[in-house]
C-alpha cells in the first residue's frame, strides 16, 4: 500500500482527526503502578484505517479505551489526546458523553456479554439515540435503527427480540449497528472478531471496510492478527509493553519491518508456506517493573549493549515509517561500545 | 410482542402445574414426620385426663386405628378439601385457627418484608455507589449487626426503649382491647379491616402495634438484602454491557439505574422469596416476643401441648405457602428476566 493509496481511502488533507501525544496510562496494583500505556504518540487521519497490533497485555485495549476517556477510575493518565482540536482528557463529563457515540464509537472483543440481557434490541437503540438526540420521535429512532440494522444484515422482524435470542456473530453485528446508528467519525474496533468463527470474521471485516468507504469513517483496528491488518488497514502501529515499537504504511512495514519485534511477529504468523512454527522466546514483561532501556531487549535476538541502558528514540529509516530501535541509530546518541552485542540467555521455560 | 406474552403465560402455567407434585411431596414429608414422632398423639395430648374408653373413641374418630396408607390417603384428601379436622386440646377447627392466626402472621410478615426490601435495597444501592467511603462502612456494619442480632434480643431492646422507656409504642399485641373487640372483621388483616371500615383511629392503633414487631423481623432480612444488593451492584457496575453503554455515551445515572441496578436486582428477587419462607420461622420468635397472636405463636402452643392435628395443620399450611411463594417468585423472575422463560 502506497501513499497514493492511503490518500485515496482517506481525505488525505494531513489534518488528523485524532492525535495522541505522549499518552501515559497507569493502573495502581498491589505491587505498584502498572504502566499499561507509556508515552504513546499516534495520529489517525479522517477516513483512515489504522491497525494497532501487539501481543496480549501490551496495552492495546487500554489505549483504545483511553481514546474516549473510558479508563477505569483507578487508572491515572498523562499526556494529550486531541480529538478535532479538543483534549479528550481535559473534557467535562458532559463533553465526554457527547464524544462517546456520535464522535468516537467502540466495538468490543466479546459480543456475548455486551448487550444488557434484560433489554430488547429496540430498547438498546432507543436509549443510545435518545442519549444524543433527545428530541427525536420514536418513529424516527425506529426508522434509523432499522436502516442501520439492515446495513449489518439483521432483519427488522428481530428488532423486538432479546439479546439471548441471537448468535455471537449476530450480536457483534448488532453491536456494530449500535455504534453506527450515531454515525461516528472514528470507530475503534477492539479485536472485534477474536471470539467469532472465520466465516463470521470475514463478514464483519467486509462490513467494517464497506462502512469506511461508504461513510468515510476512520477506523482504529486493535488486533493481534496481522492478517486482518494486511487486509483492512492503511497504516499500522506495533505496540510492545505499553510503547509503540514501530508504525508506518502497512505495505512498507510488512516489506521492511524496522523493529526486531515487528520482524519476529511477522515471522510467527502462519501461512501456506509455513513449514515450522516460529515464536518469540519469553513473554511480555511485567508492566509494574518493566526492563530498562528498550523494553523488548530481553527477548530481542539483535540486542546491543545500549538497548539495555537507554530508551530508544524515534528514527525514520524510510519515509512514513517510524521505528524505535537503536539499530537504526541515531549513532551519535549511542555511547562508546554500545553497539557490542548483548550477552543474554533466553528463558525458554515461560515462553509465550 | 404477542409471542412474548404467550410464552410468559405458558411458563407460568407450567410452573403452576409443577407446584402440584411439589406440594404432594411436601405433604408426604409432613405426614411421615408426624408418624415418626414417638407416642400416640391422642394419649400424649389427653393422657391421664380422660378415661381409656374416651381415648379409644377419640382415636377412632381421628382415623388413627386405620392402616397407615388409609391414613395417608385421608390426610391428602382432607388437605385438598381444606378439611384439617379439629384440634385435640381446644377442639377448634384447624382451618379457623389458620384463617385467624394466619392473617396475623401474614400481616406481620408482609409489613416486615416491605420494611426489609425498602431498607435493604435502598441501603444496598447507597453503599454500593459510595463504595469504601465511611457511609459504605457504616452501612455494612449496620447490615452485619441487624443480621447477627437475635430477633428476641432486638425485640426486647425495642420494648424496653420505645415501649417501657419512652412509651411511644405499645410493647405487645395486635391492637388495644377496645379496637380488638369493636373493629369489624372481614379479612382478619387488621390494617385492611380498619381501612374498609373507614375507622382511622383503629388504623392508627393497629399501625402503632405493627411498627415494632414488623421492624424487628424486617431488620433481620434487611442485613442480608443490603449486602446482597451491594455486592451484586458492584459486580454489574463492572459488567461488560455497562461499559458498552458508557461507550455509547449513555448518561451515568441511566447506566447506573437502568443497566447496573436493575440487573443487580434479579438474584435479589429469588433471595426475597427464600427469605419470605425463612421469615415464617423468624416470625415464630417475633410473635412470641411481642405476644402477637399469629400462627407461629399458636404452633408453639400446640407443640407444647402435643396437639397433633393442630401441629399437622399449621405445618401443612406453612409448607403450601412456601411452595406458592416459590411459584410466585419463579413467575416474577421470568417476568423480569427473559432468559428464564426458555
UniProtKB/TrEMBL annotation, chain A:
**Which domain of life does the protein's organism represent?**
Bacteria
Please state every residue range assigned to the domain named ABC transporter: 20-266
The subcellular localization recorded is: Cell inner membrane
Per its UniProt record, what InterPro entries does this chain match? AAA+_ATPase, ABC_Ni/Peptide_Import, ABC_transporter-like_ATP-bd, ABC_transporter-like_CS, Oligopep_ABC_C, P-loop_NTPase
* One Gene Ontology term of the molecular function aspect: ATP binding
What SMART domains does the record tag this protein with? AAA (SM00382)
Span list, region Disordered: 328-352
Q: Which UniProt keywords apply?
A: ATP-binding, Cell inner membrane, Cell membrane, Membrane, Nucleotide-binding, Translocase, Transport
| Record's protein name | Dipeptide/oligopeptide/nickel ABC transporter ATP-binding protein
Tell me the organism. Answer: Rhodovibrio sodomensis
UniProtKB/TrEMBL annotation, chain B:
Primary subcellular site in the record, as a coarse category: membrane
Q: How does it sit in the membrane?
A: Multi-pass membrane protein
Pfam families linked: BPD_transp_1 (PF00528), BPD_transp_1_N (PF19300)
- Recorded family membership: Belongs to the binding-protein-dependent transport system permease family.
List, alphabetically, the CDD domains matched: TM_PBP2
Does the keyword Membrane belong to this entry? yes
| The protein's name | Peptide ABC transporter permease
Membrane-spanning intervals of the chain:
12-34, 108-128, 140-162, 210-229, 264-285, 314-336
Query: Where can this protein be found?
Result: Cell membrane
User: Which key words tag this protein in UniProt?
Assistant: Cell membrane, Membrane, Transmembrane, Transmembrane helix, Transport
Identify the residues that the record assigns to the ABC transmembrane type-1 domain, covering every copy.
102-333
The organism of origin for this protein: Rhodovibrio sodomensis
Amino acid at each position: 500500500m502506497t501513499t497514493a493509496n492511503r490518500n485515496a481511502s482517506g481525505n488525505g488533507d494531513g489534518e488528523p482527526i485524532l492525535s495522541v501525544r505522549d499518552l501515559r496510562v497507569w493502573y495502581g496494583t498491589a505491587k505498584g503502578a502498572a504502566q499499561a500505556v507509556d508515552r504513546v504518540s499516534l495520529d489517525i487521519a479522517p477516513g483512515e484505517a489504522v491497525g494497532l497490533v501487539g501481543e496480549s497485555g501490551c496495552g492495546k485495549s487500554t489505549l483504545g479505551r483511553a481514546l474516549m476517556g473510558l479508563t477505569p477510575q483507578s487508572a491515572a493518565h498523562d499526556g494529550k489526546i486531541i480529538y478535532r482540536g479538543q483534549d479528550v482528557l481535559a473534557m467535562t463529563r458532559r463533553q465526554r458523553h457527547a464524544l462517546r457515540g456520535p464522535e468516537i464509537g467502540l466495538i468490543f472483543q466479546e459480543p456475548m456479554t455486551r448487550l444488557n440481557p434484560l433489554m430488547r434490541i429496540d430498547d438498546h437503540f432507543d436509549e443510545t439515540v435518545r442519549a444524543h438526540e433527545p428530541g427525536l420521535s420514536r418513529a424516527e429512532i425506529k426508522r434509523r435503527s432499522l436502516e442501520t440494522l439492515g446495513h449489518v444484515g439483521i432483519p427488522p422482524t428481530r428488532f423486538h427480540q432479546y439479546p439471548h435470542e441471537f448468535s455471537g456473530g449476530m450480536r457483534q453485528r448488532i453491536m456494530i449497528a449500535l455504534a453506527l446508528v450515531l454515525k461516528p467519525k472514528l470507530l475503534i474496533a477492539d479485536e472485534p472478531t477474536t471470539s467469532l468463527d472465520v466465516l463470521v470474521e470475514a463478514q464483519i471485516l467486509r462490513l467494517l471496510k464497506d462502512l469506511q468507504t461508504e461513510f468515510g469513517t476512520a477506523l482504529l483496528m486493535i488486533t493481534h492478527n496481522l492478517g486482518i491488518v494486511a487486509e483492512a488497514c492503511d497504516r499500522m502501529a506495533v505496540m510492545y509493553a505499553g510503547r509503540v515499537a514501530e508504525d508506518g504504511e502497512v505495505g512498507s512495514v510488512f516489506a521492511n519491518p524496522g523493529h526486531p519485534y515487528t520482524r519476529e511477529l511477522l515471522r510467527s504468523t502462519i501461512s501456506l508456506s509455513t513449514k515450522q512454527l516460529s515464536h518469540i522466546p519469553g513473554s511480555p514483561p511485567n508492566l509494574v517493573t518493566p526492563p530498562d532501556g528498550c523494553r523488548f531487549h530481553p527477548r530481542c535476538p539483535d540486542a546491543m549493549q545500549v538497548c539495555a541502558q537507554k530508551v530508544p528514540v524515534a528514527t525514520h529509516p524510510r519515509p512514513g515509517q517510524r521505528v524505535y530501535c537503536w539499530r537504526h541509530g541515531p549513532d551519535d546518541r549511542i555511547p562508546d561500545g554500545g553497539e557490542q552485542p548483548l550477552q543474554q540467555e533466553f528463558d525458554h521455560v515461560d515462553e509465550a | 410482542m404477542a409471542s412474548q406474552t404467550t410464552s410468559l403465560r405458558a411458563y407460568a402455567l407450567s410452573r403452576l402445574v409443577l407446584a402440584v407434585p411439589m406440594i404432594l411431596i411436601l405433604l408426604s414429608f409432613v405426614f411421615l414426620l408426624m408418624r415418626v414422632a414417638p407416642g400416640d398423639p391422642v394419649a400424649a395430648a389427653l393422657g391421664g385426663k380422660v378415661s381409656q374408653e374416651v381415648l379409644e373413641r377419640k382415636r377412632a374418630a381421628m382415623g388413627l386405628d386405620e392402616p397407615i396408607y388409609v391414613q395417608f390417603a385421608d390426610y391428602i384428601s382432607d388437605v385438598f378439601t381444606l378439611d384439617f379436622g379439629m384440634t385435640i386440646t381446644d377442639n377448634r377447627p384447624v382451618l379457623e385457627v389458620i384463617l385467624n392466626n394466619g392473617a396475623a402472621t401474614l400481616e406481620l410478615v408482609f409489613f416486615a418484608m416491605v420494611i426489609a426490601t425498602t431498607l435493604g435495597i435502598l441501603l444496598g444501592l447507597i453503599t454500593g455507589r459510595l463504595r469504601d467511603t465511611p457511609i459504605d462502612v457504616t452501612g455494612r456494619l449496620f447490615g452485619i449487626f441487624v443480621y447477627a442480632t437475635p430477633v428476641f434480643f432486638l425485640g426486647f431492646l425495642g420494648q424496653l426503649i420505645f415501649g417501657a422507656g419512652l412509651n411511644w409504642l405499645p410493647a405487645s399485641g395486635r391492637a388495644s382491647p377496645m379496637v380488638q373487640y369493636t373493629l369489624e372483621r372481614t379479612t382478619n388483616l387488621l390494617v385492611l379491616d380498619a381501612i374498609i371500615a373507614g375507622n382511622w383511629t383503629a388504623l392508627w392503633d393497629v399501625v402503632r402495634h405493627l411498627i415494632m414487631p414488623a421492624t424487628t423481623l424486617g431488620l433481620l432480612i434487611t442485613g442480608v438484602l443490603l449486602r446482597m444488593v451491594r455486592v451484586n451492584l458492584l459486580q454489574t457496575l463492572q459488567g461488560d454491557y455497562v461499559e458498552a453503554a458508557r461507550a455509547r455515551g449513555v448518561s451515568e445515572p441511566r447506566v447506573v439505574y437502568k443497566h447496573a441496578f436493575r440487573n443487580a436486582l434479579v438474584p435479589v428477587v429469588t433471595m426475597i422469596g427464600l427469605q419470605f419462607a425463612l421469615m415464617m420461622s423468624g416470625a415464630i420468635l417475633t410473635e412470641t416476643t411481642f405476644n402477637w397472636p399469629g400462627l407461629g405463636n399458636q404452633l408453639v402452643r400446640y407443640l407444647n401441648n402435643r396437639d397433633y392435628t393442630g401441629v399437622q395443620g399449621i405445618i401443612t399450611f406453612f409448607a403450601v405457602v412456601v411452595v406458592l411463594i416459590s411459584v410466585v417468585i419463579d413467575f416474577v423472575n421470568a417476568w423480569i428476566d427473559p432468559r428464564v422463560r426458555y
